[in-house]
Design a protein that fits this description.
The protein has 14 helices and 13 strands. By secondary structure, it is an alpha+beta fold. The strands form three sheets. Strands 1-3-2-4-5 form a five-stranded mixed β-sheet, covered by helices on one side. Helix 8 packs across helix 12 and helix 12 runs antiparallel to helix 13. The radius of gyration is 24 Å and the shape is globular. The termini are far apart.
Amino acid sequence: MVEGAFYHQRVVELENWMFLKSFSDMREDVLTRRSIQSLVQVGFNSFPEMNSKIAQACAFVVGGYFIYDSRGCFIDLNDAEQSADKGEVFLSKSVRRCYERTCSSFDAIPGKPLAFWVSENFRKIFTKNPQLSEIAPTKIGMRTGDNERFLRYWFEVSNINIFQSAENSEQFENSGKKWAPYNKGGDFKKWYGNQEYVVNWRNDGSEIKENTLINYPQLSPDNLGWKISNEKYYFSPAITWSDVTSARNAFRSIQSGFIFDGRGSSAFPLKNEYLNPLLGYLNSEVVYQILAMVNPSLTINVGDVGSLPVPLSEIQNRVSDEVVGRAIELSKFDWDGFEQSWNFSEFSMLNLDNSLLSRSWVREEKRAAEAISEMQKIERQNNKHFIEALCLQDELSPEVPEDQITLTRADRDIVTGKQIGRAHV
């Protein structure tokens, strides 16, 4: 940037700098040594000729001096249609939101993302509550270096060589087994599921570790660094999520026995009784909105999740424990109803009971619809609890659209496709 007290610099930049942790030093410099006079978050259709949803831009004017009480004008054009001409939207003033903010107003949120639309109530959530990492450390998982060699779907290997219930590395080692359950992220799925992989962890993962040292000779057996990460958390119960998502955040319960991947990063509550309440909070509308402030990109990393403010009293009181337990139960029943689950026993629709197949399908449709309806009520109740606990009733709705429920629909093509697809693997 040009030095000097009285200059004004006009900048057009991708909006990533407003939020991503890698730009936190740049934001710190702008917010503490200079003053943002105005900023327009253009968002979608920033560069029409590129036809890109990824290249989303912002334009801002920054002064070469810092004035503590100076208020900048922040304009959001994201309420307009994604394909709208943002120049026309800006000039028309019809579909845009304007906010006045001081540079110091961004201090409340860790990393100082330029989430200028955030209300005072939300800011207080950050200042009055501990971060998730303080009560449930968030950890990135292992990178094997060669997934084709070291990973398998569980049904590709003999069950005799899989140990599913190890509580620590010593138990797994003593079992003499080769394959451990492996949490690798996966599709948009809340509460429970995406348990499909196993990893070769015989002799404490010796083959993976040897291969890592060959490929990264700068590492040592005592320090495998960022490749074989956070081993002491392996096999512990956790809350996990997929690091890349095009939908909403989806957190899941993982029972003990799993090693976790870099794509399946996880949080490990310091107390087991925090597992269900924390899972409920993380799958709430409150956290969805907070993550949109901290990092509105498609990648949810451990730093973003670890910095989430947590209403500890609500977690300690375990008010949502029973509700979340039922959500996990419904989601587990749904996951185990198909052959991708190692707990699969029979396809519920084929429990004919001397009925016609058509009647069995009608019963299956009814069961699936009832499960989705119950889950919708559970998630609404979960949202309502945390919205009221954090005094956000005037800002957030607890309602949950049906398309956000991640249970399987009674769609003939989908249901039969899952069965036929597995039969041909």
